[in-house]
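Problem statement: downstream parser choked on a complex file, so we are re-checking the raw output for the zinc ion run. The parser issue turned out to be on our end (a line-ending mismatch), but while we're here, posting the original submission so the record is complete.
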Amino acid sequence: MAAIKYRVIKKDARTKARLGILETPHGVIETPVFMPVGTQATVKAMTPDELKEMGATIILGNTYHLYLRPGHKIIEKAGGLHKFMNWDRAILTDSGGFQVFSLSSLRKITEDGVEFRSHIDGSKHFFTPEKVIEIQNSLGSDIIMSFDECAPYPADYDYVKRSMELTIKWAERGKKAHKNTDRQALFGIVQGGTYKDLRRECAERLVDMDFPGYAIGGLSVGEPKDLMYEIIDFTTDYLPHDKPRYLMGVGTPEDLIEGVIRGVDMFDCVLPTRIARNGTVFTSRGKLIVRDAPYAEDFSPLDEECDCYTCKNYSRAYLRHLFKAKEILAARLATYHNLYFLIKLMEKIREAIRQDRLLEFKEEFLRKYYGNREE
Ligand SMILES: [Zn+2]
């Protein structure tokens, strides 16, 4: 038995957008979907009940972080990540590749794997594709990722080609090492930087290996937006129609819409939770820095059109006060709103696909979002 089942229930006539149903061992997910990031076995400042209340059906965990702290063996002993963090809906864990390359110091990449030092205590560790699968098998997440090298931007062609070759070899090895194919679906990650021929080759070779889903990695790492959209559009052409596609680490409201239009089903990003903690919120009329002085006497909600707990009960002035006073509730209320905003945005996108009006929805959303820019 396969761990997940995915089916497209409607294709948009004018774009590559798809409406889908993804069945996992921990519930059914309607796609396109935004997945809040729970780096250290918690979506920062939110309880699982709050996540459920806002409609989250799947969240992310980070392999690199959980391996270093508390350690995947402890989580396995606790009964797996779902039980450890009290989240009974779906979880996707990443490969740790991105964190190894962005957070840790003194990396040494060999054909066999990557040696790195922990960003916490400087201790030395070695990740192989097999090790990364073993860790995720211990965590018990519903969707797991094969180990990849995320090339920086810009990077020259030869570097990206070598890196892409390595990612393919590691995907092959990870697939062999994966034990729980009946309850954990292993996705391959398409790399290849901004070089189309490399993206195509990577996608085609991974598709030959027949993974239950595919991720597009190595984007949103500093390249211009137009180029990112172009590469997404190009890459999804080489991915099978009957498998879910996950764009890693991309999550501004406009990127979600543009990604869906280019055939992406799943997204994750730390942006909504991170900016919330710094006092910035999404609204239907653009981003708003609620900690700023102009909101000191603004008794309207963060977003007039939002019906989240925060917007129903609190004003911009109150949020600003909490931020200035460094009260913990500031981060909680702003995080709740930002995640709710993106989850509702995805619901609206799905509804627009259902009604054959995705492009009209995009136009309306962006006109309002950028019309009264407050940043
Ligand atoms: Zn709200």
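For whoever reads this later: The chain has two domains: 5-268, 276-368.
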